[in-house]
Amino acid sequence: MTEKRMSRWYFGGIASCGAACCTHPLDLVKVHLQTQQEVKMRMLGMAMHVVKNDGVLALYNGLSASLCRQMSYSLTRFAIYETVRDVMGSGAQGPMPFYQKVLLGAFGGFTGGFIGTPADLVNVRMQNDMKLPADQRRNYKHALDGLFRVWREEGTRKLFSGATMASSRGALVTVGQLACYDQAKQLVLGTGLMGDNILTHFLSSFIAGGCATFLCQPLDVIKTRLMNSKGEYRGVIHCLSETAKLGPLAFYKGLVPAGIRLIPHTVLTFVFLEQLKKYFGIRVVS
Q1: What is the tens place of the pLDDT at every residue in 97-114?
Q2: Which residues 6+ apart lie within 8 Å of 17 measured at CB?
């Protein structure tokens, strides 16, 4: 008889919150880079600019919204993906085929992206607020204040501004992270050279983070521009065409900081998740 541990449905949200606390400054710098109309600053220069103008704590602007987003977006996608995968895996011989992982990841990510759109909108606005002139700043006190004010001042529809892009991005990120992590871990363990330990988790999640960054960056740029707009874009297609005028590389603006944020975030999420599963997961004896 062998014993293994299965993840609980809410572990993904907790692990993502832990990772977000570590990588939030990188996420903030990425948003600043994506919303500048012309390339004026690189990653390090933008970080120094934020610290110089607003202090070190400004790097954590919007943290409450980021955590709120993880507990809606990430909790949903992990819950759908891991629950369905574990149910299907327990009734079948061997792990799920990769194409099924991709389809499940896309569905989970799309659903999570839609549910997490309001928190994501407030997150982007809170991070970008310090760039605006003092008279144009929104000055949300925290995530819940931001959600309430957007609903009261701009209506329910505005809360889901950019939902199409956020859902599409969520699908791609989840395919890159969850499906690729599972597949990479399966391949690494299949070599027989490494066991199911933290080194394997690190290597698999690093690969998954790279895949996710490359897949979602164009959508991430469009989503950030739409969410931060003050009405200058008529919709997704208009935003797409305006961004395209800046050249094809505009869709990969902030790719390095996005990778520097998303890869560590992915690594930390899965390392935390595996440790939660190891110590607090559901015992399964087979």
Answers
A1: 899 999 999 999 999 999
A2: 67, 70, 71, 74
